[in-house]
Prior knowledge:
Blueprint: H1 8-18, E1 23-24, H2 27-30, E2 47-49, H3 54-66, E3 71-74, E4 93-96, E5 103-107, E6 112-116, H4 121-130, E7 133-134, H5 147-152, H6 160-163, H7 166-169, E8 170-176, E9 182-185, H8 198-202, E10 211-218, E11 220-221, E12 225-233, H9 236-249, E13 254-261, H10 262-271, E14 285-293, H11 300-313, E15 317-322, H12 326-337, H13 339-346, E16 349-350, E17 353-355, H14 361-375, E18 380-386, E19 391-397, H15 404-408, H16 411-424, H17 443-447, H18 450-462
Parallel strand pairs: 2-4, 3-4
Antiparallel strand pairs: 1-2, 5-6, 6-10, 7-11, 8-9, 8-10, 12-14, 12-15, 13-14, 13-18, 16-19, 17-19, 18-19
Helix pairs in contact: 1-3, 9-11, 10-13, 14-16
Amino acid sequence: MPDTFLPAPLLTALQDLLGPSGILTETSDTQSYCTDWRMLYQGKCAAVLRPATTEACAKAVALCVQYGVPMVPQGGNTSMVGGATPDTSGKAVVISTTRMNRIIAIDHADLTMTVEAGVTLKAAQDAALKEGLMLPLSISSEGSADIGGVLATNAGGNNTVRYGNARELALGLEAVLPDGSVLNVMRKLRKDNTGYALRQLLIGSEGTLGIITTAVIQLQPQPRSRETALCAVQNTQAALDLFATFRKQDPAAIQAFEYMSGTSMALVNSLIENCALPLSEPAPAYVLVELASPRADDSLRTLMEETLGTAFENGLVSDAVLAESETQRQALWMIREEHAEAQKRAGASVKNDVSVPLATIPDFIERATAACENLIPGIRVAPFGHIGDGNIHFNLVQPEGADAAAFLAQDHAMMDTVAGIVRELGGSFSAEHGVGQLKTYMMPSWRGGAELDSMRKIKAALDPKNLMNPGKIFPDAE
């Protein structure tokens, strides 16, 4: 017998609709879909539905609605806030988009890609590269995260400083709404002022308003020249001043500008293979800067060297290494991308994905570090992230040798401590990871009143039975 609580008629209908490879009911098969990447949430589900087309997805959703079964949309299952994990009741089904994995078209005239939701971000990037183009969105989990999840969470990443978040890159999309109807706004238009921008309502909704199945994504010409450097700096203010120095020279050349604390870098160097520090000695903080241009003869090396030369003279940079090949460039980026994995290997961690105005970043990191060290002596404060757009992953790693469960039991105290400082500085408690189920308790105080009330009304209008990803974004009703 299958391990499911689904009514027999519904199970039969879903099996007939999706076929033998389109539905999983045995616990051994569904377990991996019920645990998040950080292993903070271990839920249960009645089944995992794996439709291969938008039509099949829509019919599956309609059947679930008919029987009152909650649905949890899931892509690559890389959420940092439990946004794609079912609860422990076992009543919900997970609807996975991984079988909807076709790259439908690449249009050179419009510079767009039409792609299904289950295509991984890395596969989409590679497809664009083969055509001499670039999909500029880049995140650490791009090998697993898929297009649907990237859009549903409005992912940001390393190149936001130049190209914007997922929201800025999506021109059109198709989605299955909570009643099983299909919303098709698959337009390639940069200008379309005909009422509400419904695609923007779905982007960033974390699967609470529907399941994105197909999208039109903007592409860019592939850079033909690129310069990358890892720089040692004395503090966060120096990192921010270095960003200002590059921006004054040529803001259009900056493709990425990433900050890494000394503590976080040390974890990468010690816990990740082939990630030794390529500088003469450790520093309090680091910056990874990348310049790029579609022009092959662009003088980016001169720009990089002259700007860093000025930074050395002004005391902003104490050491730097420039990539001399694509292999060296990838090695520098590997050091940056492995920060989350290194912190995971170092023990339990609490992740604060926050954003503040750029000018306040040094003040934020200094104040939040002192507050957390005062709260938990021995805590390893390991911030890193996208300093060029104001998004810092202010992560906190358990003291060495501490009990992981006892550390995580204080997660709300740590998150609230950091969030309090963020609020004073006019920032946001979630810059790019979303709310999920981890941060729902913050919504009333941060987004209460008319803002949260409007969100609830939109949710109720599209999903009156609250069957689409329940328990995410919204706190429990009083």
